[in-house]
Amino acid sequence: MNISCFGLSHQTASVEIRERFAIADSALPEALLRLRTIEGVEEGLIVSTCNRTEFYVAGGVSQLPPARFFQEFYKGLRSGDEPHFFGLWAESCVHHLFRVVSGLESMVVGETEIFGQVKRAYETAVREKATGRRLNKLFQKSFHVGKQVRSSTAVGRGSISVGSVAVDLAEQIFGKLEGCKVMVLGAGDTSEKMARSFKTRGARQIFVSNRSFDRAQVLAQETGGRAIRFEQWEKEFADLDILVTSTSAPHAIVTVEKIGPVLKRRGDRPLFMIDVAVPRDIDPDVHRLDGVYVYDLDALQSMAERSMEARKQEAAGGDRLIAKHVLEFQNWLEKSANPMINPGARLASAFAKPTGATRCEAD
Amino acid sequence: MIERSRLVLSMHLDFISSFIFASDRTWIWLAAYCFVLASAYSGYTLFAGKFMAPRLTFGLVVAGFLCQTIFLGVRGHEVGRCPITNFFELLTFLSWSMILIYLVIGSSYRLSLLGVFTTPFAGVLSIWALLQPESEAVPIKHPVNPWLEAHTSFSIVACGAFALAGLAGLMYLIQERQLKTRRPSLVFFRLPPIRTLVVANSRLLWLGFGLFSIGLATGFMIGQDVDWRKVAWSLVIWALYGGILLARIRHSMATRWVATLSIVVFGLLLSMFWGIRFISEMPPVR
């Protein structure tokens, strides 16, 4: 009796390979049915996201090489596919799942989306009656572990994209963004992403100004904001809280001379400026003015990189927690498999590995 | 009926203070212990970036505040007036006022982390009070002068508000510095937003200024001989805070300077406590 995982992920396969093996949500019920037709599979569950396709099974398939499992499920592999598969058994499989749910196996370490994706996969499998006692316990435990890892470590803390770093900074300057006036200068892709980020976090007053007024109108409409003509943006400046610039102007369009007199009228309200243009739209000296904070692309990028590094360091703490829970689950599984045998024998028999390797890449 | 209730209450207070505690100073020891514990815990979680349980810090602050309140109640009963009759009581009352204002404004302005800065200060004030040699209750025979009571209590509660304004100013300077260096640390994301700190600093300055003004005004109504050195010193502090607020209204001073002055002037105010004590031991100038 054993629990195994067969799969491929962003760590073992490129997107071109992954997309061939991905299973759409709508196809999951049928895939679960097919999974249970494989000999030895007693319980099964499929997690399929853009970064991984993994099959969790309970039953007598632990000796199966990963490539053989994929062959049996997909009925037709291409040459060169085999090295991208992996197979994990017993505690290695449990450990892997706990890491996946905690976001430690994700491309962006600590991201939270995977938690919901695994939960939905589990719900589908339960609905299709594909899971049993062992996988139910395993996945319920994994959700508990995932939550604990996130709350007890800083693995999900800090933003790791330029846009979210900028919005986090804005929140730490102004508190809630509902009452903030945001102006976007330039209506390119970056501006659009920034405007959307601010809107998502609650900003209600968004102004868009662009040399092409039509383009400004389109972006304003998409973000629920107001378009203003490029010649008029300075008039709105006194009431602004956040300015995002990404124009293609060859020189700085926001200078100390231009905004210095306006600042006196603003009182003690801080002004946050995000300059994502290259060359920069905001004169670096503006950052020296009292109550004005200018962050350019380099500053935001460096913050995002530091967050990523910090998350990776926190992952070690998450692993320690996971190891404890793997042991607990292992004990439960052994006890439930054979309650009469002594603990030492249980450990040896129920979790005997099929090979010396705990993580087996396909041969 | 009221007299009888008072008698029963006083009997209970006497019983509790004599039976459980050899001295009412023990309440201040307990309060100091709570504040130091809260400071150590919140400071550690803030700077080490660990998971923070705000309820634990808040619980310790409330426990410390209750100990102080019990002390002030027992001591007030013993001396028969507002317990600000010696330097020990004055420092305790100041610490109590600061925590009172923190508890009132902390949740309103999302400034729960102000506790990280408030509790060490309250702890220091409590320990400073405990180091005072003259701390025993000395019942005063002459009748209570309500103007004197109002003057002292309003002035000290105002000091509590000014203390918190200084702490909000300090937090503002920390946040501002981090934003200007463009390398905000974990602490930056744990402290309150900079805009909230500006608003809190401003409101606390106004609150302190209003209370201090009432304290000064009631001081003139006491009807006793006035030591003009104390009055002059108090007026200087009042004028300085008034100047800061005026500059803030007219936007003629950078926020950074307002925050800095909130700290500096509070430092002067704190030195006034020494000053008043020093003056009290000298022959008065009338």
Folded structure, characterized:
The complex is a heterodimer of chains A (363) and B (286). Chain A is α/β, with parallel strands linked by helices. Chain A folds into two domains: 3-152, Glutamyl-tRNA reductase, N-terminal domain (Beta Polymerase, domain 2), CATH 3.30.460; 162-304, 3-Layer(aba) Sandwich (Rossmann fold), CATH 3.40.50.720. Chain A has twelve helices and eleven strands. Chain A has helices at residues 15-21, 28-35, 66-74, 90-102, 113-127, 133-152, 162-174, 189-200, 213-223, 256-266, 297-337, 343-350, and strands at 3-9, 41-48, 52-59, 86-89, 181-185, 205-210, 226-229, 242-245, 271-275, 292-296, 359-361. In chain A, the strands form two sheets. Chain A has a six-stranded parallel β-sheet with strand order 7-6-5-8-9-10. Chain A has a five-stranded antiparallel β-sheet with strand order 2-3-1-4-11, with helices on both faces. In chain A, helix 4 (90-102) crosses helix 6 (133-152) and helix 7 (162-174) packs across helix 8. Chain A is elongated, with a radius of gyration of 26 Å. The two termini of chain A are 24 Å apart. The relative contact order of chain A is 0.13. Chain B has 286 residues and is mainly alpha-helical. Chain B folds into two domains: 1-94 and 111-136; 145-286, no CATH class. Chain B is 78% helix and 0% strand. Chain B has ten helices and no strands. Chain B has helices at 2-19, 25-48, 54-79, 87-108, 114-130, 146-181, 186-190, 194-219, 228-249, 255-280. In chain B, helix 2 runs antiparallel to helix 3, helix 2 (25-48) packs antiparallel against helix 5 (114-130) and helix 8 packs antiparallel against helix 9 (228-249). Chain B is globular. The mean pLDDT of chain B is 81.
